Amino acid sequence: MKSDIQIANEVKMENIEKVLEKFDITYDDLELYGNYKAKASNSLYNKLKDKENGKLVLVTAINPTPAGEGKTTTTIGLSQALNKIGVKSVVALREPSLGPCMGIKGGAAGGGYSQVVPMDEINLHFTGDLHAITTANNLLSAMLDNHIHQGNSLNIDTRNITWKRTLDMNDRALRNVTIGLGGKINGVPREDGFMITVASEIMAILCLANDLQDLKERLGKIIVGYSVSGEPITAKDLKANGAMTVLLKDAIKPNFVQTLEHTPAIIHGGPFANIAHGCNSVQATNLALKLSDVAITEAGFGADLGAEKFFDIKCRMADLKPDAVVIVATIRSLKFNGGVEKQDFSTPNVEAVKKGFANLEKHIENVKKYGLPIVVTLNSFTTDTKEEIDFVKEQCEKIGVKFALSEVWAKGGEGGIELANQVLEALKEEANFKVLYDEKLSIEEKLNIIAKEIYGADSVKILPKAKAEIDQIEKIGLDKMPICIAKTPASFSDNPNLLGRPTGFDITIKEVRVSAGAGFIVALAGDVMVMPGLPKLPAAENLDIDENGNIVGLF
After folding, report:
1. What phi and psi values does residue 132 have, to the nearest 5 degrees?
2. Which of 87, 130, 482, 494 satisfies CB 3.0 to 4.6 Å to 82 for a cystine?
3. What is the pLDDT of residues 315-344, one digit of tens each?
């Protein structure tokens, strides 16, 4: 079986200008990065501003498992399939992070014959957006510590600094560090730490900003810490937001690439969905809507994390109205949720599929709460049996949702035509999109609504540290914003070992922080971390390059 990178390398890419020609995009609308990558120029937005939007379809999934669900692969394949049957479609995706790419997950550019290319460049440094975000983040850190070193005229409390440095890599050794050692010339000693770039508030801001001016205003609202008297200190107070915006002036522009079948793909922004809001940029989605009859986008991890945040944070802020949702599952992941170990995924087991279906069913119920038509798709594997597939199909139809088998990994767009047709049928239904809660409710009320309605929890337990942080957020008047709960993606609960559809559990909130620039409140549940570590066998061990410059081991 060919690897993803072998398949990608065998396909002849078209010049990105040629790919975009059929979507009425010209050379003057682009800022080229070589032959196969480009950024959207500012003039493109003006050119498209009066054009009617197409339909918006979100692709989400059940809780991720070691089996892999193929959500990105399905998203790409669906867009390819729509174009194949004559429906103009652009796919909008997130940018991969080097952390997971070198860690446990590998690349994030799809797979098989449903990939975006150049796959290696997209997974590695791409157009430098994540590096620009890292630099802007760390400029703010440097200006903060320099301000303290140079006399601290803002009277910043060095014991109450909330801003962290970033690195686009999994590095557990940097979670907690001490800086400023080595004498007075090196600054003021204090405790600090790093988070992965894709968990940074700057990443979230870039993805939620409408334009460059909005980006600058949002960056200025970032709270880096508090004064001795308890007043919030912002990036604007430090006079940092102008320079930060300069560093991000190109990164804010969406990136164009192509799929293996030369479907346009917009890849921009990459916030994690368990420690951020997990969606590509508002600008990228709006651009895809202007260019498409049906725009396809995705949200990170399962629907309990990614889709909920897509609806309650991104759609709320950007006034987006999605028209339908695709929920991706696999027979293997249903078996896993039904108690089967990974080594037994290939063994037929209808009873385990029946038991694991409860996880999928809960996600279906959750999406229905947002008033949207649903299509469930099974990402096909050769080990799936007809009996297993038929059970899922029958159960979906029994509870009133459409079903399609997807073979896009093996067949590309051709393998997604059944799914594409079902999506088009779903788009004929009336969508009555609504968010789950009123952001003007108290933080505790919003936490309880998400935990009970989406996760199925009995209650929310707020630890004393988190309670004190909530009190502080309320005191400074920033509590009337959406909630971004950071928890394990592996379970509806905050315990990754509770699979299927757990009941009788509580969600424990250990920390609450405000992302004032992004416009939401982050609540950390369970043992979730904002700086992951590398696994025992990192994917980086298999990554190499030959004497001709060809990359191997990237997947």
Report:
1. -65, -40
2. 87
3. 999 999 999 999 999 999 999 999 999 888
